[in-house]
Fold:
Amino acid sequence: MAVSMLTYAYTGRDGAGKVVKGQLDAPSEGAAAARLRTMGVAPITVAESREGTGLQREIRIPGITRGVSLKDLAVMSRQMATMTTAGLALLRSLAILSEQTENKELARILRVIKSDVESGTALSDALEKHAVVFPPIMVNLVRAGETGGFLEDSLNSVAQNFEAEVKLRDTIKSALAYPVIVLAMAVLAVIGMLIFIVPVFEDMFKGLGGELPVPTRMLVVLSTAMTWLGPVLLVAGVAFACWWARNKNTLRVRQVVDPLKLKLPVFGPLLAKLAVARFSRNFSTMIGAGVPILQSLAIVGETSGNWVVESALRKVQESVRQGNSIAGPLAQEPIFPAMVTQMIAVGEDAGALEQMLRKVADFYDQEVQATTEQLTAMIEPLMIAVIGAVIGGMIVALYLPMFSIFEYVR
Structure:
């Protein structure tokens, strides 16, 4: 039967006589005191932490409570790599990280990992228990570092990989933030006009007699339908968002959605470049850390973020297992440009695959940034034109009956 772990706050003295405070997880107060003694700390007070009990318990609501983002992992990895390189013990590094990190969920998980490592579990195995938070690439890089005796180098590789990924994501988010905000405001403006303004004009037109122009009649019909269509669309949108959050990572959905993403007229090429950049960077990092090729291909496929890339890498993995090259099967996949496969082939022949993959990743990082800037420069005037046409068309449709009024007055 699994033993439930509780969190205890302690005060004690270390070997130098300095008073230290902190928290640890243990099944009982006696077990917590015993663990402190094994850590070289003489316990003064040990009590169950009030945080997380009774009315002070932290409430975690799925989808609302903040989780652990890639940026949180990047900061944590960089801090851990720096402390490990400086010669701090792993347990001390985990203790400092759990106390200093701003993300409460990550701090809680780090305390659990510290407890596991204290009990003799390898760091990679402790990370693997939290697969939802720590991606496979991080777990396997740490495992390779533990096995080869170069954990600090592996942690540096993890930090560099996550930092590059965060930078790439931030570039795309910052470039697309303005168009998305403008589009959302335009949609709200149109809905507001249909619900509040058009009915006022409709009541005014009823007393005029005669037949309204076709554009005006269409606008009135749409405004009338919005009274029931709006709530239906809102409920449907919320239901779809909940369904999407639960099913977006399932294989059935990814097999349908991921190929469609790459075929989008404007964003498809950008997503393809992003997938190639992520594949090249992750593969280069895995090879540089000494992870075997077959294992690296499997992990890179899982972390690619696109089912098309993952499917292609499974074929590559089977080819390598049979003793063939990496570049051959990649050349048959449309998502990988000829330049990528040629550089990988040269890297295989020259024994410099890691360097070639890193150059490919750097090149496509720049391509993604340039493409994003071009899309932003192109989307902004198009959105202004479309929004102007929609709202301007609605205003013209509302004022068309005014010409009829002038005719009746004459």
Remarks:
- Residues 51-65 have pLDDT under 50 and may be disordered.
